[in-house]
């Protein structure tokens, strides 16, 4: 067998094996199990209601792990600050009241767009 014919045969065989592999993988039945309920996926002793309504706000919202830091962000909004001002103030307050959280210098980031600043 000449080298050219052998190369063509090898490529054809490789192509056929790839097609068989792809079809074989694509047609495998997927075993589906019933999804567990939310309650079964939550750690025992979870202190919050699983059916609670989400919090909403009309003019702004500040959320953090520490009530004092949240209050700092809320005060920033009440005094005319924008969302970025409130986020930075809350982050600084968290650095004081919850220093183990990483906070300032901990690798956080913000992506923001200020209206009218195109």
Major sheet summary line: none
Radius of gyration: 29 Å
* Nearest-integer average pLDDT: 77
Question: How much strand content do the residues show?
Answer: under 5%
What structural class is derived from the secondary structure elements?
A: mainly alpha
- Helix and strand sequence: HHHH
Assign an overall shape.
elongated
Number of helices: 4
Number of strand elements = 0
Determine the fraction of residues in helical runs and give it as a percent range: 40-55%
Instruction: Give the terminus-to-terminus CA distance.
Output: 68 Å
Low-confidence stretches: none
Describe the structure.
The protein has about 120 residues and is mostly helical. The chain contains 4 helices and no strands. Helix 3 packs antiparallel against helix 4. The chain is elongated. The mean pLDDT is about 75.
In short, what is this structure?
The chain has helices spanning 3-26, 38-41, 67-78, 83-97. The chain is mostly helical. Helix 3 (67-78) runs antiparallel to helix 4 (83-97).
């Amino acid at each position: 067998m000449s080298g050219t014919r052998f190369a063509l045969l090898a490529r054809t065989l490789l192509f056929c094996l790839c097609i068989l592999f792809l079809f074989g993988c694509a047609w495998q039945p997927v075993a589906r199990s019933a999804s567990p309920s939310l309650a079964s996926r939550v750690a025992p002793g979870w202190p919050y209601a699983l059916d609670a309504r989400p919090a909403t706000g009309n003019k702004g919202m500040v959320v953090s792990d520490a009530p004092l830091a949240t209050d700092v962000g809320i005060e920033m909004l009440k005094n005319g600050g924008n969302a970025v001002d409130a986020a930075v103030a809350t982050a600084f307050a968290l650095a004081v009241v919850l220093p183990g959280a990483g906070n300032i210098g901990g690798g956080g980031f913000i992506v923001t767009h200020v209206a009218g600043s195109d």
